[in-house]
Request: fold
Amino acid sequence: MASTDSPNASLAPSITHWCEAMSSLRAGVAQREFTPKVGIASGVWGAAKKSRSESIHIGLFLTAIAREDSDARRSYIIGIDLCVLGCAECADDMLNGIAKGVGVSRDQILFSSSHTHAVPMPCIHRAKKDGSELIPEFRESIIKKTIDACIEAGSKITDVDITWGYGHCDLAVNRDLPCGSAEVVAFNPEIIADDTLTVGRVSTRDGKIIATIANYACHPTTLAWDNMAISPDYIGMARKLVEAETGAPMLFLQGASGELSPRNQYSGDTALADRNGAILGHAILSTLKAMQSPGCGLRWNGIVESGALLGEWNEEKVSGSSDAKEYRVDVPVRVKEWKNIEQLREEWAGIDADALEERINRATRLRIGYESGAEVTHPVWIWQWGEAIFVAQPGEAYSFIQTELRKRNPGRIIFVVNLTNAPGLFYLPIRSAYNAPAYQAWQTLLAPGCIEAVTDFVDKELKKI
Amino acid sequence: MSKRVIPKTSSTDLPPSEKLFHYPFSASLKAGVAQRNIDPPIGIRAASWGAAASHVATGLHRDITTTALAILHGSTPLYLVTVDWGWWQGVKDDLNIRGKVIAGLGIKEDQLQLHLTHTHAGPNTACDVAHLEGGELLEPYHQFAVEAMISACKEAKDGAIVATLTWAYGKCDLAVNRELPCGEVDIVGFNPDVAADDTLTVGRVSDASGKIIATIVNYACHPTTLAWQNTDVSPDFIGATRELVEQKTGAPMLFLQGASGDLAPRDGYVGDHEIADKNGRILGFASLAVLEKMIPSGNAMRFKRRVESGALLGEWEDFKFDSSTFTNAIRLDIDVPLQDLPTFEELEERWKDIDAGARETRLARARKLRTGYVLENQRAKHPVWIWAWGDAIIVGQPGEAYSYFQMELRRRHPDRVIFVLNCTNGPGYVYIPTPDAYTRFRYQSWQTLLEVGALELITDEVSTAIARMPKFKN
Reply:
């Protein structure tokens, strides 16, 4: 109700239209539960005394969003309640199987693990443990259900509006704790963690929410060696809360959480995972509620003469960007000079035998395809979906990559996603982590400077978009 | 939420577990809470908007409530009372309510911080408009509300138990800047180019078993979702916030309006209750996220041990600790400069050409605003109440301070949790704007009586007083 007869009626701001970052695309969504049988070997903890799962905390889900170009080419983002894909060989096999089943190339899929540590590892090359016999069936189930979900998501493709926004969440803390001459992986109260939460809301043209996307960086390590329940960790409760409120599947994408975890963690108590999930779930809901109505921005409506001189904005239908571009870059990085496996055995000789074997097995499988000191490339997928950009890579990057990319590109909504596709399933720590030294620095195969190189490379790519 | 961490030893060994601690901001005090519905009758005067066609309530969107928190300062009770009302026009209106609550409780003035949440869809607080439509219902309603406040305070005090109060900051994106440049002037409207303070301050009050008995939410955002198109009484966004938080916690929530002179929801000036509820849920979910992250009541954390796993891990554990029992309550009367105020004769001359009724209304409002506040020589004493509850500081004052006030206090005192309350007690029911508000001819600068610099002066005085408050050492 603008006051058209007011002497101030001609007042207007310099910008009379405003909207959040929005995309207008063609997309569809589908979700599958793939919870394995109780009894399967579950968890990834060297300190665990048992391997056979005993219960299910919350079921495991995978969520697929399919996007279609104007030329009918399709691409897929899949978020799945897995820790990692296993060794390079198993990851390759799984990704090839999915791509073949969906009928697309590997680079048309972002297959992204949520990184929960309370699930079976879909790797058949791990040391045999109680419950390992169920792993092959689990792997097949993941491949089949991912293909099913992608095909269903593709069949549901429709015109959608996606509203993007940043929010905040205080679940994550820094987990690089200096202890004498080394660092342990534990809550460090002295360093502030990146609290950025990135959210997308996918709606049909009639305003119905069909999916949400949440990208947040925090290791799902609430549940640890004392836990024998299969669980998505905190993501389970976050998803429950968001899906109950929106009535639509939520796709979770793990951010660059190399050094980030919940403050309260390493527990056997699933209620703690739920509390951590409620922190994230409520933060996501707050961010979603702060968005304008689906497909809407604001238009200046004029002056209103009241007790004060007021300015009225009204919602208006707007279209977001339909620009889309999806490609992969291979960033040159250097492999560090590493100790051989026998040297590692000697170095770790004093620790618990199970923990030692876990470390040796991981180190051995991780090195397949890499040579000490070699020049290699690290793959990064850069997908522009309208006004949002997904930067996904297989490693466990430190939050430096997301804070830097967002700082250097303030006008953009950037999803930064760890643990996506393969190869390159190792940490990307910052230089200081190598000096500490932190666990992440001796787990990784890459030399100091890798994350800085990847960040600079990707930043240059983003500037081109 | 980190407060203090004792540095680790310089030893090259892993630190002994007892050397590393993480304490929440907290307090251990005798506290009680009580809440009352004070819904007004339909037809009551509810005139918050000059642009409204109607000034009486035709319905009720959500309950109007008052919530009282009693804290024992030694043997003296301190009452923090919040009411879903808008603002006072003058000291007479204020004392018509607050004075009666003080008298009814038999307490001194400074034992009460009576806070208005600043909804712009509440019943009128004025006591001199009985002659206007719906005004005849105000006096009995105000008396009913006063009795409810007194009764809530008494129940809160009588039910006070040893409680643990945990404090934490969070963030919420409900508020936006509302000073929109339009040519040479700024108007009151969403300005996308200026970031708003997003600080959310939350308190959780728990009994010895850890059961939550109250929560406190302090956030700065004008409750101006519902505007001239709305004729229903409403707490505005606070209603849905409270519903969400109270459903989850099972305990009353006190909402305390922050220093929101320049802040409002992006979606506002509407008649649609759904928008008010949507705004409330932005804040409600954000408040719940902060509550969920708090350490269990009465606990702190300490480093427990290292664990050899796939990596070398470090385990923390919760442990019981004694929170600060410190309380303090002071009042400042800050000498502030006033603008060169026109005389009432000059105002009469200025408004001589407008409608006679409107002129009289404006003159009456100008008189009310000055009475009891304006002193000679263009000065006033601006009252501020500063209470310390353990690690938390509660700063209440009657004006509508800009967010600079809360941001500065929090920036200068990072080792405390500071609640900053506008619209609390009186007199001094005026905007406290930043200097640029004056140069941009903003509404707030012509509503206020204060001269440029008052905000900075008040901030400095309050900051100095906070710095003098003792700190609890764990």
Notes: The mean pLDDT of chain A is 95.
